[in-house]
Structure formats: structure tokens, C-alpha cells
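sry for the spam today, last one i promise. C-alpha cells for design, 488 residues
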């Protein structure tokens, strides 16, 4: 990583602390690597993102619903899902200082290439071949071994029940599928979404909130009839939409743009899958206002993809601070999970649908909420000699407007409070009366508030206020009666 990139990461870290976006958890005790808390502004941003996600993805189909499932699940769930056996990361220990590193990361940092999916023997070989040393003490590294990333917990007075903190929200949807299928009147496709915490004992948490040990996922499991994988009832809506794809066999080139129809015909991407790729891309480009050049779907090879996936394209964003970063994935998980649960629980997950028996297949749309929050801050953070500003899309900005009384006297403060009271039920408004107007603008810019409304002496005379636009810094006089419309 270059110095320039590192310094941007540091700039984001200080802005996040200063303006209450995020900071290390339990910091007064020194913190624990991989755990972060969100402050007031970060929480607002994160909730808005989650709600935007809910509205958009649950809105794709009348048979998509959100559920809430437990964070702690019994061991058998993860035996069935395959996480007990396969959810492992390669680790390597320094023979001198004893530090344990994530083997593929330490090699990646050194050779600037991705080594996901390699076996411990292959990684050990690479470390030896390139003489890679411990990043802490320069000591010699041992052989690569594997470590399960799940946090185990013991439940009950005698700690008799073995369980795990869920490493993905997805399993909550699978264990509830058969009940929800009955409740939703036995229709497919059925979508079950969960927005909640996932826990992984990451060996090397890093890059602030992008690799944590406790993080939030927003995942939608779409259960469908596998025989219908090459159709979608709204195919016509998506077939001409141009996807930005970075396939395995084109890694040395730039991403390509192809229509969903071309992806289906020439790249064997099933229609059901391609339709959802289009919807995911539209979410990032149209709702989160991510520039096209900063977005791509990256295909994973058979060795790289997660153990449960048959087709796997990651959603990647090109961040200013750390380069291309995976923020989610579109996963064709087949009947891997439901069949696994059927076997281990002894409760057959077969359903009767369209006059036949079947175990539904699953298309998973998986998103890392914290990584997307981080990406929104990273991509919209502008610091130049004039000012620091977070040009967040209006839909996720912590507040829609800030209200400033020019002075706290002459009835101006009273008028400003009235305006605040009048607007606060329909918009998220922020009242700030302290410091010069210049300082208040600077504060609002750093929080990403799109509009600042200043109440001054003229307001008392003609009922207008000054409205300043965050991005252009242009100011205009607007009638108080028109503010509601302007903000909504
Ligand atoms: N259910 C599928 C699943 O969990 P994943 O690729 O392991 O797939 C999905 O995780 C997303 O969760 C990732 O794309 C990433 O955005 C986010 N994520 C994964 N590990 C994370 C971590 N340690 N810290 C923050 N976000 C993480």
C-alpha cells in the first residue's frame, strides 16, 4: 500500500472519531482489535443505509420478507451448513515472537496479488520461496495451518450445550425456511432477509471497519425452484441492462460491460441470477450514487469461491484508501444448506410445489453493511485546501438539514426553534446554535448534511431563510413555507 493511501485511511479514521461516525470499542480500556462502535452520526448513516436496503430489496418481490433470528445457534446448525468443517482461514505463526498472521494476507501484502483459495501446503511453499518474514519482528515463519473462524460459546448452568455465534446471518433464514414457507402460503420464490450481526474470529482485523470480528450483514436468501433458474418473471425489465463484470478469464483486462441477455447467452449466467445482478448493480449506482467506474462484479473461480457456492460473483468497489474492496456477493448456494439441515436435523426440508416434491435452491444476495458505510465515507470524503466535506447521497446522510440561528437573540433563536419544531417530524433536522456560522457550516459539511438553513434578521422581516447547498456552497433565500417541500 502506498503512503498516499495510508494517509487517506488515517484521515478517514480521524474524521470518523471527530464527527462520531465510528471508533474502537471499549477504547477507555485500550480496545480490542476488530471491534468498533458507531457514534451518533455513524449510527444514523448506518440505519439509513439499512432502511434503504430493506425498502429496495424487499420491494423486488411481494413475497420477500424480513425476519429476525438468534445470533447464537447450536453446533448442529454449523455441522449441517458445513461451517464446522470448512469455515477456516490459513494461519502462520512466527517462530521468534509467536505472532499469528493470516497466511494469505501476509503473502498478499508482500507480493501484491490475491492468494485466496490456496492450500496450506501451497501457501507454506510461497512463504519459503519468497522468504516472507514476520511483519512484527522480521522473524522466520513456520508452516501454514488452518483455524476455524467461528466463536464458540457454552450455554446453560453446566455449560452443557455447545453453540456458536453465527458467522453469517444466512443460517437464520435456512433453519426457519419450512415454517416461513407455510406462513407465506407456500409460494416460490420466497425471500427471507436478515439484517443483523455476524461474528468471525478474524486473525488479522484491519483497515478500520472493513475487517472486524463483529460486524453487520444484510442478507437476502431467495428460495426458488431450481428448474426455473433460467427464467425470471421480470426478465424483460432487466435483459438490456448493462452489467459491469470482471470475469475470471479476463483478470488481466479491465471489467467488461455486457447486457444481462449477453451474460445469459454468452457467459452461461442463468437468467434468475443475471436479473438479480442487475438489481444489485442498480442499488449501488442509482441509490447509493456510486460512480460506474468504481463498481464491478468480480467472478470467483472454483478454488476461490465459498464452499457453499456454485456461482459466485463478489460486489467490489474501488475505494480511494484501499483500492478494490469486496462489499458483498451474489451467491448461488444451490440446495447445499437446506439439504444439509434436512439430513442433520432429521426434518426433511422437501416441499410440495407445482405438483412436485423439491428442495428449493437458494440465491443469496449478501452485503457487508459496515463495509458499505465505510465505502460511502471513503468515496465521498473530499479534503482540499478550502474545506473538508462528506458528499454523502442525500438518502443516507445522517441529517437532511441543519438549522442555524444567526445569533441567539433578537427573537431569531425563537424563530429558528419554531422552524426546527415544524420540520423535525417530517425530516431529520439538526439544530446547531454554537460557534460562528462559518464553523457551523464546516461542522455540517464534515457530517455530510446536504443543506444548512440559516435564520437571520431578514427572516423576521420577510419570512425567508438562507439555504446553503453542501456540494456547491451556493446560497439562496427560500420562504419558510417552502422548506418542507424543499427538504422532502
Ligand atoms: N452469507 C454469505 C457470506 O457471509 P461473505 O462473503 O463471507 O458471505 C458477506 O460475507 C459480506 O460480509 C462480505 O462481502 C463483506 O462485505 C462482509 N464481511 C465479511 N467479513 C467481514 C468482516 N470481518 N468485517 C466486516 N465485514 C465483513
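last one done:
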Amino acid at each position: 500500500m502506498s503512503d498516499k493511501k495510508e494517509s487517506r485511511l488515517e484521515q478517514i479514521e480521524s474524521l470518523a472519531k471527530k464527527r462520531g461516525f465510528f471508533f474502537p470499542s471499549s477504547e477507555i480500556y485500550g480496545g480490542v482489535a476488530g471491534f468498533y462502535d458507531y457514534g451518533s452520526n455513524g449510527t444514523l448513516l448506518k440505519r439509513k443505509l439499512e432502511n434503504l436496503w430493506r425498502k429496495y430489496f424487499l420491494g423486488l418481490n411481494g413475497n420477500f420478507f424480513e425476519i429476525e433470528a438468534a445470533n447464537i445457534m447450536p453446533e448442529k446448525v454449523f455441522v449441517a451448513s458445513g461451517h464446522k468443517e470448512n469455515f477456516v482461514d490459513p494461519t502462520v505463526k512466527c517462530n521468534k515472537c509467536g505472532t499469528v498472521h493470516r497466511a494469505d494476507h501476509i503473502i498478499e501484502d508482500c507480493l501484491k496479488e490475491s492468494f485466496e483459495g490456496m492450500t496450506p501446503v501451497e501457501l507454506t511453499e510461497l512463504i519459503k520461496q519468497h522468504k516472507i518474514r514476520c511483519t512484527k519482528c522480521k522473524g522466520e515463519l513456520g508452516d501454514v495451518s488452518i483455524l476455524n473462524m467461528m466463536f464458540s460459546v457454552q450455554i446453560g448452568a453446566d455449560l452443557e450445550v455447545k453453540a456458536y455465534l453465527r458467522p453469517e446471518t444466512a443460517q437464520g433464514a435456512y433453519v426457519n425456511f419450512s415454517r416461513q414457507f407455510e406462513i407465506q402460503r407456500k409460494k416460490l420464490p420466497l425471500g427471507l432477509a436478515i439484517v443483523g450481526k455476524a461474528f468471525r474470529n478474524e486473525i488479522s482485523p484491519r483497515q478500520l471497519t472493513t475487517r472486524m470480528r463483529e460486524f453487520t450483514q444484510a442478507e437476502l436468501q431467495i428460495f426458488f425452484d431450481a428448474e426455473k433458474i433460467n427464467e425470471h418473471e421480470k426478465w424483460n425489465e432487466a435483459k438490456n441492462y448493462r452489467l459491469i463484470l470482471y470475469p475470471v478469464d479476463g483478470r488481466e483486462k479491465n471489467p467488461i460491460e455486457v447486457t444481462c441477455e449477453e451474460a445469459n447467452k454468452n457467459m452461461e449466467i442463468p437468467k434468475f441470477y443475471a436479473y438479480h445482478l442487475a438489481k444489485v448493480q442498480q442499488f449501488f449506482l442509482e441509490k447509493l450514487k456510486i460512480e460506474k467506474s468504481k463498481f464491478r462484479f468480480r467472478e470467483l473461480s472454483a478454488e476461490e469461491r465459498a464452499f457453499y457456492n456454485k456461482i459466485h460473483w463478489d460486489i467490489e468497489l474501488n475505494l480511494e484508501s484501499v483500492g478494490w474492496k469486496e462489499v458483498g456477493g451474489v451467491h448461488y448456494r444451490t440446495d447445499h444448506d437446506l439439504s444439509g439441515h434436512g439430513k442433520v436435523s432429521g426434518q426433511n426440508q422437501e416441499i410440495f410445489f407445482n405438483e412436485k416434491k423439491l428442495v428449493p435452491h437458494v440465491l443469496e444476495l449478501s452485503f457487508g453493511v459496515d463495509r458499505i458505510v465505510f465505502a460511502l465515507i471513503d468515496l465521498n470524503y473530499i479534503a482540499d485546501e478550502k474545506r473538508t466535506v462528506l458528499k454523502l447521497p442525500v438518502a443516507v446522510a445522517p441529517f437532511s438539514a441543519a438549522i442555524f440561528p444567526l445569533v441567539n437573540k433578537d427573537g431569531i433563536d425563537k424563530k429558528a426553534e419554531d422552524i426546527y419544531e415544524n420540520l423535525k417530524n417530517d425530516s431529520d433536522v439538526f439544530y446547531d446554535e454554537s460557534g460562528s456560522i462559518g464553523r457551523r457550516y464546516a461542522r455540517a459539511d464534515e457530517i455530510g448534511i446536504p443543506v444548512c438553513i440559516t435564520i437571520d434578521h431578514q427572516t423576521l422581516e420577510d419570512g425567508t431563510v438562507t439555504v446553503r447547498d453542501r456540494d456547491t456552497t451556493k446560497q439562496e433565500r427560500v420562504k419558510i413555507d417552502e422548506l418542507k417541500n424543499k427538504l422532502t
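The chain has 17 helices and 26 strands. ok im logging off now
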